[in-house]
Amino acid sequence: xxxxxxxxxxxxxxxxxxxxxxxxxxxxxxxxxxxxxxxxxxxxxxxxxxxxxxxxxxxxxxxxxxxxxxxxxxxxxxxxxxxxxxxxxxxxxxxxxxxxxxxxxxxxxxxxxxxxxxxxxxxxxxxxxxxxxxxxxxxxxxxxxxxxxxxxxxxxxxxxxxxxxxxxxxxxxxxxxxxxxxxxx
Length: 185
What we know:
single chain, 4 helices, Nucleoside_phosphorylase_d, Nucleoside_phosphorylase_sf, 5'-methylthioadenosine/S-adenosylhomocysteine nucleosidase
């Protein structure tokens, strides 16, 4: 059995309520809710794979819209005791999925600011979200393979919040098609 995970129910709106071979989990937005929800699910049931779907901001202007696989996650909203942005005082600076793909920068705020986007680019992030780092870290703690698929919903700049509200449905359709194609469900 696999676990299909999203932060928000709206990211799953194009998916049927039940999907053969998958349990479903909606954690809520942000790193703490993501970590808590996924930890509870993995503590209760053994899964062969976690498949995360959802939206992400695209911070590389050359990257076209679509669905992308994530290879690694960094945190853009932490700093260590020396003030180094992206370095946590006790967590690894980067967690990996073991799959080929793009680097996503995770933080606990919805980014719609050009200056923050530039900082994220400087850290090596190509996509941005609010949960992936936590999902990947928790999956690693439990030794469960994880796959993260993110559909670009906005450019994480001025007006991104409004754009996200308008595009989440289309992103859900793209993600549903990808899951259907790759998992035959």
